[in-house]
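Contributing: when you submit paired examples, paste them exactly as shown. First protein:
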Amino acid sequence: MLAFLITFLPIISFILWIYYKDKYNRENISILLKYFILGIILSFFAIIIEKFLIDRNIFEDDTNLIYTAFVIAGCTEEILKGLVLYIFSKKEDSYDEKLDGIMYSVFLSLGFATVENLIHINYDSKMIFQVAFIRAIISIPAHIMFAITMGYYISKYKFEKNIAKKRQNLILAFLIPILLHGTFDFILMIQYKWIIIVFIIYIIILATINLNKFNKYMLYSKKRFFDRLKHGRK
């Protein structure tokens, strides 16, 4: 029961936080839960692919760190999430504003993070509280930030009319989360005395940029909401 609580309580907290942040044109909870479940399912495919890549790892030292952070973790997880988000979001009739793409992406990522939480927290029963705490304040928020980036560019892709820019945004929806995720893992893997300072700076920059992205689409949603109210009064 304790393991269940410390595994799911942070996830539930972030679900409620992101859900109620969408104030003006809130998505149907059933749609968001669909993406959450897709994230859970997706995590098992990621485990299989990552195991395959780990077993075939021929690199050592710094090259091994780069391979592990950017290929095994970054590419595998973000490409899988990106593909699912791209395929399923195209079919959503209610995907009518840019903030929706971020909401789908974050719920997908939180589903993925739920399985990760279960695995990491239950891996070592002696460190269960420490691992749960670290994941709650660092790992899960990082997943959310990667997801905001992905959803931000997926929405730019969806609503862009110019074909060249549309293609560019789709590429960025995959590429930037891979780089952000890979950099996050790479910094954590480096055995260097002062790396914690670099990590803290990176987290602050990551959070600032992505919360600004979220707020940008939130303002767009707010404007759209009041424009529709105004139009309705005419």
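Second protein:
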Amino acid sequence: TGWPCTHAARGGTKMNIEDIDVFIGIDVGKSEHWATALSRDGRKVFDKSLPNDEERLRALYKKLADHGNLLVVVDQPATIGALAVAVAQDMGITVGYLPGLSMRRIADLTPGSAKTDAKDAAVIAGAARSMPHTLRAISTSDEDAAALSMLTGFDLDLARQVNQTANRIRGLYTQIHPALERVLGPWLEHDAVLEVIAAWPTPADLKRAGKARIDARLKKHGCRRHAAWAGQIVSALEHQTVVVAGTDAAAVVLPHLARQLIALHAQRADVAAQVETLVEAHPLYQVLTSMPGIGVR
């Protein structure tokens, strides 16, 4: 049975299905998928739901492999569809995906108006069997894109936490010593300053430490302007003599917040290094980074 003609997936690569005997369409879900498998002549050899579980996916692929070579096609190759793809790849099975736009076009031309997981899986399997030009092969670039998406998403979460933690530190200093906040607040992206806060969180602690020790700690942790910054911190302390209510509690909270912010900075640096490694491996990296406005300064 033929399927309606549709345009090829934009940017897609036509997949070779000449040696494929069974076409498995999987409509992926968070905890459960629906899989429809068609033979080369269009006969259904499987049409059921199955959990998003490696053991069950592997068992299904193994069972269907008795009919010949398999092609597994999903509607989402990343996130909730990643496990179905990974298991198939581990078993040496050809894997592809049907882009959303192509799937919607085919579904609109398919009899039956109700949208169900079973119908979507049948659409995917049918497209895999009759319209390979609508499919995209899952390549290393797709895997890299999924990795970059995960890493940048995590970095966005970390950036929010950095902002929240820094604002909390600034809020506490605004309460207990506004002049000190005006000096320390803009420097919270520097771990050397956070080390000072972790060691001597309150105005009284900083006064007892003195300029020389503050200077030494800033220098130890890589602050190039350690002498100037130590001087500004000590000068700020002279603007207030009273001890504000809540200072003792701030003495407990501030070191924890400072350490938390240092850890968040380290996590962001690690993620940035991972992203850079992925990007540098791209074949167009040298070309892109040499372009004005894109290249690294």
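If you have annotations for the second protein, write them as plain sentences, like these:
The radius of gyration is 29 Å.
The mean pLDDT is 87.
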